[in-house]
Known about the structure:
- By secondary structure, the chain is mainly alpha-helical.
- 49% of the residues lie in helices and 9% in strands.
- The chain contains 15 helices and 5 strands.
- Helix 8 crosses helix 11 (172-193) and helix 11 (172-193) packs antiparallel against helix 13 (237-254).
- The longest helix has 22 residues, at 172-193.
Amino acid sequence: MKVFDSEIIQMVPKQPDFQEEAERSQIALPANGDKTYKQRIDDLTANFGSKKKKQAMGSRLRNEIHGEALEKSLNSVVTVAASQNKHKPVNKDEQQSTLLPVYYKDGETPKDVYPLESVLNQEAMDSMMTPAQLFYDSNKKQIKEWNVKEEEKMHQISKYILNHLSVLPSSTDQRWYKSKILMYLHYLMNVFMKPAKDFKTKNPLPKEWPDKVKKQIYDDFTLLADSGKREVRCLPSRLKDKLALHILVLCLILDEFDLPLNDLQRDLKLGAKSLDSYVRAIGCKMNIKKITAELGEKLEIKSAILQLPLRFPEAIPRKAKARR
């Protein structure tokens, strides 16, 4: 056995900082022409990456904005914002929420605060005449048939609307007025409950709906997104919140600003916290009355009441999570 002198070397990996990484990504490597480090990585992904990584890379490259295009976009945004601020000062009420329907905080009565036109304009109201005929002609037998099994709920008329149909006024004008509003409400609730995948179809809303109403719903509550092959509709969570607030305001108007919430909560499948947030967001106070049913079951009867002067909840900043 022979013994030789040797040296012990301990190797420690170096963690590059963000600046070094950025510099490295911009270095042109002679072995690959004028390509940067980042471009070489993209080439490897294109040739050897998984399907998921290739899709992510393709999406990133499609959405990249470079050089003059980025500068032009930023200048355009700044110019528009400056022109808007120059001609229209923004007050506290306008900053409060872009999700609420148009409201008049200093209204003397609840009807003045949320007029019907704030959620259903006259043009859309007029276009509801033909579809509202179904509700106008409804009778007890039809209403009972519409009250179908729970598993078919996506295709039925909501319990809240059925309750109103059972007490429609006999006066011709008032019956038409209520029927149109209830049919429009039925449309909004249908959109709210529609699964996200259904918006990806070419025509997400039923063809029998009036074109003016469909355009209003598309413009107010949906966005167009690029799927790669074509533009598709989507209902992001922020606009779904906006839709829920419009539904609640429309229901407030129907119930003369003292709104029973139990059936509506079940129809929209809202959790207690979500319902409470929506009710407070439109300036209402929630009343909860606890009762005991015939079989001894404890029940909570919820209602939303719009009280004046109108008060909205103050935004509470989120607390940063403590580091472990």
